[in-house]
Amino acid sequence: MNSLAFLLLRSLKNNLLEIVRNKKKLAMYIVFLFFLAIVIVASFLPGDTAESTPDIRWLTGAIFVYLLLFFVAAVRQGLSEGSTLFAMEDVNLLFVAPVSPRSVLLYGVARVLKTMALASVFILFQAGTLQSFGVGFGGVAILYGGYLLAAVVIQILGLVLYSLTNGRPGRKRFAKVLIALLFLPMVITAVWQFIALNGNLQAALLALLRTPAVSYTPILGWVSAGTVAFFGGDIAAGILFFSLLTALGAALVAVIYIGKPDYYEDVLVASETAFERKREAAEGKINLETNKRVRVKATGVRGTGASAFFFKHLRETFRANRFGLWGFASLLQAGTAFLMVFVMTRATGTDGVAQGTSKSSLAMVVLLAIAMYLQVFFIGMGRGIRETYSHYIYLVPDSPFRKILWSNGEVALKAAGEALLIFIPAGIAAGAGAALIAVSILAYTLFCFLLVGVNFLSLRFTGMDISAGLLIMLYMLGVILVMLPGVAGAVVLAVLGAALPVSVAVLCVWEIVLIIAFFWASKGVLHNCDMLVMRQLGGKC
Known about the structure:
The protein has 26 helices and no strands.
């Protein structure tokens, strides 16, 4: 067997053995596979045959926007520190082995393909969403394949960008301009459609999604248009778009394979950076933005006892980012929310005040549900959780419950700021009442804080962070189950005729109960020092 193929298969086998030998991991993966099987079986069942099936062009836009987030992140990383196809063990052992660099490159591509294949499994859980568009499991598999292919190509693109622009500011500026120009036809077409349709935003967006300006946008347009083409039975168009994406991926690999076989230095920076971040996290160094220039405008930390962690995190955050807790991602969420609500409230005519009020309420509830759903994926590891990888929080003479709450106050503050940016402009656009806007802000903020409590609870009883990787679907299922009583209570009140702000307020009360329960149950993380990393650093406590 080829040595590189053996290495790839052996690493996969070792990963499986690690899961099998860890009873907690094995149990969670079994539960994960069980629910995945339920989703797959449910996708074969006949869906809703109602006539109000959403226009499938909206699915084109959803796939495009979702991939756009990863595309922008990959381009920014590629122009700064580069993306890598290798881990640090490959750098230390494989790069010095008597193996052709071109063969090692192909091994790196296969390694990324394996990693992305596992990381993309969450796509299969979108079967219910696709079923509402009349798409069965075959369509889910096509979406999975398209997303996987796009993720691999975007990863390789980041490596090529770094390889061609590293140390050359002129080339970096040219690359930024060139990438921006790729989206210029779509922007021009959008403006033209908006003017031609007399300012009807919804009709303009639907018209835009069927134009070549979207379909032939590299990577993003090819995947979204190709996937939807397969859904609609246009096999030839689907094959064409997926072939373009495959050809681009092959061309990017060929650029390095043929044009720059001495690419080791280009991937070394990104590999070392990723390795150093993992090691620093394991050693308790939670300030991982060491490659950025720090702007020191103030010094000192306020607060005493557990509250000092909150002010410490604020100081660190504002040093790392001039906008503090909020940045481009927050503005993007606010803009997307405003656009979504604007389209929903103007999707049909305004036949009376009652109808307009109903639409505004529906738009705000849908916006709240979507915003909370996305936070399950984007909440990440806040500074409070990362603080547990350091010894300082264990040594502060205060109660574990207070220390956990104060160390995660930054998350609540950030969520509150984002909620104001998201729901106030969207609520004004929808014509919603002040009470509904206020309780929506409160529900979103409390939910973000609740997710942190779930993360701590998983660390307390499993020793693992299940909010990332394959187990994120199990994590999401757990969040849904614990939220179900509150959601059910809110729905029952709404059906019985209670005002919508009152129903959402009931959901807020349930979130507060869960937050207190989860953080109280998680206090043993600090009291017993049973974190996996703490055992690695200092032995048994």
